[in-house]
Design brief:
alpha+beta, globular
Amino acid sequence: MVTITCDTCGKEKSHNEKNLKETWIMGSDLQVENKSGVQRSIRFMDHWDDRRVLELAAIHVCSAKCKDDYIRGRRAAA
């Protein structure tokens, strides 16, 4: 069994969706390097997809606040 944790706060995702007060958000954070520089693309999906949780560069956040914190943190690192 896979344990999903929030990439911002570390909270574990419940396996029982009915117990969740907020819907988890899934996305991807891709970074591509080439000879002219680095390009980063952060995209969020409109729904949770269990088939995509283990994809390379997948993002899992537990709330809209953690999503905003994730984006802010990545801007500071760029």
